[in-house]
Design a protein that fits this description.
single chain; about 325 residues; alpha/beta; seven-stranded parallel sheet; five-stranded parallel sheet; 8 helices; about 25% helix; binds flavin-adenine dinucleotide; transport; ETF_asu_C
Amino acid sequence: MSVLVYTESEQGKLKKVAFEVASYAKAVADQLETTVTAITINTDDTSALENYGVDKVLSVSNSELNTFNAKGYAEAIQQAAEKESSKVVVLSSSANSKYLAPLLAVFLNAGYASNVIAAPSNTAPFTVKRNAFTNKAFEDMAISTDVKIVGVSSNAFGLVETSGSATTEAFSPSITDLGIKVESVDKASDKVSIADADIVVSGGRGLKGPENWGMIEELADVLGAATACSKPVSDLGWRPHGEHVGQTGKPVASNLYIAIGISGAIQHLAGVNASKVKVVINSDPEAPFFKAADYGVVGDAFQVVPELIEKLKAFKAQQ
Ligand SMILES: Cc1cc2nc3c(=O)[nH]c(=O)nc-3n(C[C@H](O)[C@H](O)[C@H](O)COP(=O)(O)OP(=O)(O)OC[C@H]3O[C@@H](n4cnc5c(N)ncnc54)[C@H](O)[C@@H]3O)c2cc1C
């Protein structure tokens, strides 16, 4: 009856979000007075999970699952849920989950809530708060199926450390290949990925051209941030499509989102609104983004950003 949590990894290492979903699963398990079992796929690096409430790790090692494959991953998680008799399965609301979670819901005959931002307010009926309408509203959603799947938004619940110990068990689910494959095409470099980033520095058409992205990269470097851009910027080929954020691009739910030379069109805001703190740098005081911003700087990016980099470097040097 333990709560099952799927802890995502990349290139053999657990992602930060893995510890966040484990923390969430622990909160659910406490409410249901049960334990937490994590399933990991192709990573040996699982020891830290016990610090986030995991009691047992089911460790899958299978070369067919080296690249993300929605059906194969769903089968592995389904079999783990059945083995543990889990009534609640927790995963992150990541880009891969868009493919994985609906399949898993079919396999487990389960109800699925995505973009969940808080621990259940009630367990009977099982009720969670989630972002709705591309982050413009919150709703409480009750899941009435026997098995429930909860997709947790990144940076919404946070990391909750506990002291504990976990046992690890090798787990070998049988994976059938029906030819449905969704492969992750992210990661071309060692840069911080948008999905995992605490801080995202994003540039828009106000930066005039690709030759001016040096200062965006430098600011991101100083802050340990990921870089992102508006849709026209990637459409124009100034930046790779993988950096396009918004309604039709990647969703961003970082702790800090810095928008530079971006007007704040509704389609852009739809994808970045879930970020906790939004800072806007724009030369036009009437730019719509200022209405959604927590902090705003009205000014020329070519003046403001280099000054900001200088101040941050000086601040870091004092630490
Ligand atoms: C169906 C659909 C889906 C879409 N999906 C997305 C999406 O997912 N993501 C997305 O981003 N867009 C999306 N768009 C496009 C969106 O509507 C906007 O056109 C786009 O976000 C505008 O990009 P921008 O803010 O970079 O450019 P602009 O609208 O051209 O704004 C540039 C901003 O830079 C400022 N600026 C200019 N010079 C400076 C300077 N020197 N210093 C500081 N600021 C300066 C200007 O004041 C202006 O506010 C979508 C549109 C449609 C119709």
